[in-house]
Amino acid sequence: MMEGKSSKRPAGIGFRTKFILVVGGAVLFDLLVSGGLALWNVQRLSRDATLEVGQGLEAASQEYIRTYADSTAAQVSLLLRQVHSDVSTLAGVLQAQIDDPARNSDVGAAIARTSPGSVSLSYDQQGKWSQNAPGSVSVVSVWGYLLGEDRKPRPDVESDIRTSAVLDLVAPSLLQHGSSKLQMYYIGSKERPIFRTAPYTDQAQTFDRLYPGHNEANFWDFFFPGLYESWQGWAKDMKSRPVAGDITQTAPYTDAITGKLIVSFFHPLWTADRQDVAGTAGADITLDQLAQTVENVKVAQSGFGFLAMSDGNVVAINSTGEKTLGLRSASDPSEAGALTGLERSLKGSSQPAIAKLALDREQGIQHLLLQQDGNDVPYIAIVKKLPATNLWVSGPVRQEAMLLGVVVPEREIDASLYAAQAKISEATNRIVLYQILAILMSLLIVTIAVFAASKRITSGISALAGAAKRIQAKDYSVRVAISSRDEVGEAGEAFNRMAEEISYHTENLEQLVEERTAQIEDAKEEISTLNAQLQRENRRLGTELAVAERIQLMVLPLDQELDDFQALEIAAYMRPAEEVGGDYYDVLKNGSRLKIGIGDVTGHGLESGVLMLMVQSVARALQEAGNTDAVKFLTTLNSALFKNIVRTKIDKHLTLAFLDYDGKEMILSGQHEEVVVVRANGEVERIDTMDLGIPIGLEADISAFIKTREIAFAKGDLILLHTDGVTEAENDAGELFGMERLCREAVRLKDLSAEKVVAEIVATLMGFIGSQKIYDDITLLAVRHR
Questions:
Q1: Is the distance from CB of 218 to CB of 304 less than 8 angstroms?
Q2: Locate the HAMP domain: which residues (predicted)?
Q3: Quick count: other Cβ atoms within 10 Å of Cβ 229?
Q4: Are 779 and 583 in contact (CB under 8 A)?
Q5: Distance between the two ends of the chain, CA-based, in angstroms?
Q6: Are 254 and 297 within one domain?
Q7: pLDDT tens-digit profile of 380-437?
Q8: Cα–Cα distance between 494 and 481 in angstroms, integer?
């Protein structure tokens, strides 16, 4: 016997060296990866913290701006409400005088006695008007067209002069209290527009100087064209007021007497019968207070506010804001009677972003880019609408809601954000430095530990390697002695057990092979028996399904039955999703009466098909028994089916509807899918059956739920009955065929025969489904009136 040559493998790197390289490299890689992930997470945490802090500060800043704007708007609204209240108070006193003529006359006479200067007028030769002398509480001016030939006021005008003197009692107190007002006054009706104002001024003289020709034209038409007519419209219909309330204000304008920017507030006075206008009470206020409230707005360092009309005309803003928004001021020359208004419009701004501001609705916080020194500077703006009021400019009174705006540079709002981000960045850099030092220290400790552990671990592994070579040489008696209690020691114990099992299995291998072979033969025989049983069961089930399918098709109406009713064309199509379907349709004739039924059993398959056959049998029996009451028919059918369902323990029920036709009326009963009726003129009527019944087989008695509905059915009309397998059929894209598509097809085919209508709709449906699997039974039935 020849000995084989033994080949020695070339010496390579020692196991301990490999262990140190592999383990040390793995640990080093792990430290680098975990350290890198830690650093990445720190950076990410820094970014997230910066973002979160930024969003929080931004939200807080924007909320601060909103609150500031709301507070300022409330202050402005409060000032306006105070003026409204003062004007309403004066109007209330004057209206009370108008409503009580006797008291009005008494009060006027009393004031004339105690304060004759209030009602004694002198004629002015140059101006051709009359006016009381200085020293009175109020000045009253009577224009030339209100004087008689004797240059004295007409009697009706004289009466108004006396009664309007009540202003002397009320106006001084109102002027001293509440909001600051320039003057308060009474203007008479259009027929007698005397003008009484408190405090006393050279009223008529100023008008002559500033408004030539005013004394020859009616006061209302000259100064306030269209205002009086608007009030007359309100007297006829108070709902015609643009804003609920009588107070009417003008747009801000420059007062001709004082030269100040003012707003006039009017409260119309009504005749005692409330059918016409009797004049007005009014007050003029300067915009100093409003302007001061707005101009004092200061958000951050250079944020500012502005007050504007709804058309964008800015009436209050500080000089910084005016320059920032690029506003241009101009006073347009006016016609003789017009007031001089301030024109300083946002729409005319040199800043494109300001010119495009949406003023018709509140936009919330808006971010704008405004040009400053050739650069685009980001700003934050918010515009609030003040409560709406009635406004007169020229012509009819309209609704007006003044706008309050707050504008602030984003860099100032975000100053705290930048500071917080800098602090977060500083803390992040410090954490990164500490993390790098921790990684380096971990690397040093791991390197020392690897060198220390390698010697102990590799000695046991070397012993295992030697024992494995003896196993390879078929020396199964070898055992390894390793004293350590770590994983290497466990590996040695496992090696010894493996060696014992190899020795045992080697000695008993042939016996084990014979036992396994016998077990495999027994399993094969058992599998063959089960296969044979399964084949017999499949043949049996196939035979049963074929019989059920044939029975189901046998009970469907024959073609000659569908053609047997002369007044109607009837055509039908049914395709089950499996061998046996759960859809039901039938056409039952008894004498001159025709009953058409359609239903859908829950699910499909053998049990559904059996329940469908029960429905057909019971319906045929009831029809043959002469049951003509649609409600009783369904109630009796349900009772029979419910008992059969309980007996057979079939967990099924069905939707079921019937059409009863006696040659004159078409009666619909029972709950099923929508019934589609296409009239001869192409109109489509979809009839919902949900309220005509409930599913069959759920309750023992359903008589309380069954209702009927008469359907008009004239010549040329078409009725479509269907199950949900038609409308819920899907194409490859998951889209449903749907009721809308079914109705469109019905209208398109309305002039064809019932058989062609069914054939064309089915062809369209199958083309729509394409290669998609049909999951539900499909049934379609068409009835046409010949």
A1: no
A2: 455-507
A3: 16
A4: yes
A5: 110
A6: no
A7: 888 888 889 999 988 899 998 888 888 888 888 776 666 666 777 777 777 777 778 8
A8: 12
